[in-house]
Amino acid sequence: VLPGMQAAFVEIGFERTAFLHIKDIDLGALNKPPNAEINTVLRQGQLLNVQVMKDPLGSKGARLTTYFSLSSHYLVYMPQADNIGISQRIEDSTERNRLHTLIEDLVKSDNIDGGFIVRTAAEHVDKRALQADVSLLGRQWRSTHNHKAQPKAGMLLYCELPMVQRVLRDVVLRGLERVLVDDQAVAAELIAFANEFVIDAASCIQYYEQARPIFDLRGIEDQITTALARRVDLASGGYVIFDQTEAMTTVDVNTGAFVGKKNLEDTAYQTNLEAVTVIARQLCVRNLGGMIIIDFIDMPQEEHRNQINLALDNVLANDRVKTSRYELKELGLAALTRKRTRESLEHILCDSCPVCDGLGRVRSVETVINDLFREIQRAAAKQHKKQLLVVVASNVGTILLDAASQYLSDLERELGVTIQTRIDTQYARGHYDVASL
Fold first, then answer.
1. pTM of the entire predicted model
2. 119 half-sphere exposure, CB direction, 13 A CA radius
3. How far apart are CA 163 and CA 185, in angstroms?
């Protein structure tokens, strides 16, 4: 428990301890006042029911809350709340009122305590489907809340749906044509799940039994390759550069080979306009979150800048993840914040390079050789040996035995040692060893 941070680190069975801030604790449930300090609310060794609201990200552990919520296809149930909210994306006032009244009646008839958020997918959905979700969430909460086993640290009380069912629940939207599944058992499970919880999607699920890999149908492998690349080319000849760091993601738009037809201003505007759609798609596919800074090509005309901002707002409106845009006019940048709950695609599918340790660059051969010479000096002074063995990578060894051979000879005379050089093809550029013989 850390009073200086008004937070606690919680052991929940993960590799890294999770993080719980005072603002994410339901103080009323613990009979504590709203302005209570963390050290008066929690103590070391205390057992506490928590829910993971953000997965571990980079070097940070999972983010926890004691404000619980359970999700279904149409609803989000919040046991500690007492209100009914409607998704802001449902704009029709008549439909909003219908849903509010309907959920209110269903909650009363099922005798469920708590609040609900009506998700966008519930728009124009009939009473029967909503009633099934209300009952399901009520049963799940009672099962979780009334767990009969003796509680212990790290004990799992409730788990989200497996990925396949979760995708069907959260991602499937109206206008869906097909859901192809290349595993017959999984397809059967998915159809059974849809028949009970996502009825509209049940008829769209099909078992894919052809020999050709299912990813080849829509070029999914190419899409993954593009989503993991630093550079994404535009159809016009321009390109966009994505750089993901722990603090933020930066996006740089460049004209590249696109020279335009009229003038520089029009070329910049057309490139930026094309880049807007590509950037919005890549934010979703890469699952980029947190702060995102976009450096569009400079456009002196205010009308063009306004058009780019409008286009950006339009494409971001289709993003399922909450995204907000801010203007940095003085710097000519666009700033976004996108809700982040899980690791990005790059962090899920990739490991840090063992050679560059994730930097994306390695030291030059000349720099490595200079480091090596200093290491030789240290070894000669420390071991007082007359013969030293130097083992280096092949690209370093080539320079060492050719262009830098005179420097190596001078070093031998200065130190009074004999230096034997050996090349090891398994060594990376920056890896070398100096040993006495």
1. 0.74
2. 20
3. 15
